[in-house]
Amino acid sequence: RMVRELITQGAEGRVYEEEWLGRKVVIKQRFPKKYRHPELDSHISKERMKAEARALTRCRSFGIKTPAVYDVDFEKNEIIMEKIQNSITLRNYIYETSNNESPESKLNILAEKIGKVLANLHGNHIIHGDLTTSNMLLVQPYDASEIVVIDFGLSSVDERAEDKAVDLYVLERAILSTHPNTDKMVEVLLAEYAKAGGKAAQEVVKRLDEVRLRGRKKLCFG
Amino acid sequence: MADASFLCKWLKILFIADKGGGVVKRMQLQLINNLLYRLPLHGKLLKHGVECHLILCPMIVSTFQVLVAVNRAVRALRRKSMTTRSVYAEIIFNLSPTKSITDSLKRFGLGDDDQNILAVVIDESDISTLVDKLNSQVKGQICMLEEINMLTDEENIIKTYKMKSSEIQKGNIEDSVISRMACKDFLVMN
Q1: Is A83 helix (H, G, I), strand (E, B) or coil?
Q2: pLDDT by residue (tens digit) across A120-179?
Q3: ipTM, 2 decimals?
Q4: Is A109 an interface residue toward B (CB < 8 Å)?
Q5: Chain A partners of B67 at a C-beta cutoff of 8 Å?
Q6: Which residues form a coiled coil (chain A) (predicted)?
């Protein structure tokens, strides 16, 4: 039986891998923030966990692939969820693909997939909050895989175009700054998003222009 | 009521529920088929001191689902935070998509016509004795635990848990059911 193994540690908490009730799982554990008043901290932590578990489950109901939520423990501040096996991050996939011959067609196909998924996500008024290529996965065989969206720890629900545009902007910046020669890919992504998402999505893309003009000041970090 | 006289083939899994957080209970799942006489909830089995939790099979997607429900129930028991009054009712409640206890007992508990039941035996320590005891009293047709998949009433489950077609196409039913179970306290699915 596998003991809990630390995968990664961020500002919010730790992510472990473990075998739980016979299955390989991922455990997201939130740190208590000592500088906060303990009651407030536990409340905030609980609210964030609920938001994350909700978003994961609701996305599933819309047909967006996410890890299944297996258990939520508010005392230990843990969410136990499915471990997506045989996967890589979009980040690594783009990196690998970019190094091969004529990556354009594969990247464009990927871009369309992303556009569709985000149109679905935003169409259901879910703001991911941290859209990067590290928060999207592909499973083997990668070329044929659907996008699996993970890490809804900063997610929220909002109908307005503003937050959705910011969501897109964060992803755009993430792709363009991490991977060279991805301008076309982003174009294809946004085009597919607008096509798949209808009028509301087109509004968001329009809003995106304004967000771009505002620049870095729009991001919550950096 | 006369002896619960149904044929039993005994069954497989011995499982230790999650050790973290002090939840250490051994559990054995038995699938009992061709139940000829209705077993009142704890009935005959309880009389002989073997507490055995009985769950309606068609509503079960997988044994993992049951493990998750049991784990949660035992944890609540330990923390003295159960919603219901007994571990049995708690397990049933955990399986249900709704917050209504009566509703969950109706849906997942046994009815008069039910022939297939999943028996869950939980104890702190020596489970094999309990299971042997259960064995000696109950004669029924036991099936391989894996056969539970054949008894699943998918249509009913999809309806009960209110799953949409988009969800079923892209994912599997087990994940959908367990996600709902896990988020039940703070998420209403329409």
Answers
A1: coil
A2: 999 999 999 999 999 999 999 999 999 999 999 999 999 999 999 999 999 999 999 999
A3: 0.89
A4: no
A5: 21-22
A6: none
Q: Write out chain B residues lying below 8 Å of A54, CB-based.
A: 183, 186-187
Is the Cβ–Cβ distance between B61 and B152 less than 8 Å? yes
Residues of A known to be catalytic: 130
Nearest to A63 among B166, B175, B178 (CB): B166
Q: Give how far Cα B71 sits from Cα of A96, B33, B76, Å.
A: 42, 25, 9
**C-beta atoms of B72 and A146 within 8 A:** no
pLDDT for residue B41: 34
CB B32 within 8 A of CB B116: yes
Q: Could you report the per-residue pLDDT of A46-103, keeping only the tens digit for each?
A: 999 999 999 999 999 999 999 999 999 999 999 999 999 999 999 999 999 998 888 8
| Chain A residue nearest residue B76, CA to CA | A73
Residue B114 has pLDDT above 60, yes or no: no
The order of strands in the sheet holding A78-82 is A5-9, A13-20, A23-30, A78-82, A69-73
Domain ranges of chain B: 4-182
CB atoms within 10 A of CB A85: 8
Interior/surface letters A106-129, b for 16+ CB within 10 angstroms, e for the rest: bbbebbbbbbbbbbbbbbbebbbb
Are the CB atoms for B8 and B141 separated by under 8 Å?
Answer: yes
Q: Pick from A90, A108, A191: which is nearest to A150 by CA?
A: A90
CA B85 to chain A, closest CA, distance in angstroms equals 20
pLDDT for the residue numbered B126? 55
Q: Alpha helices, DSSP H only, in chain A?
A: 38-62, 90-98, 104-123, 161-178, 183-214
- Nearest residue, CB atoms, B72 vs list A20, A61, A71: A71
Q: Map tokens 């079960």 to a residue.
A: B60
Instruction: Please tell me which of the candidates B18, B164, B186 has its beta carbon nearest to residue A50.
Output: B186
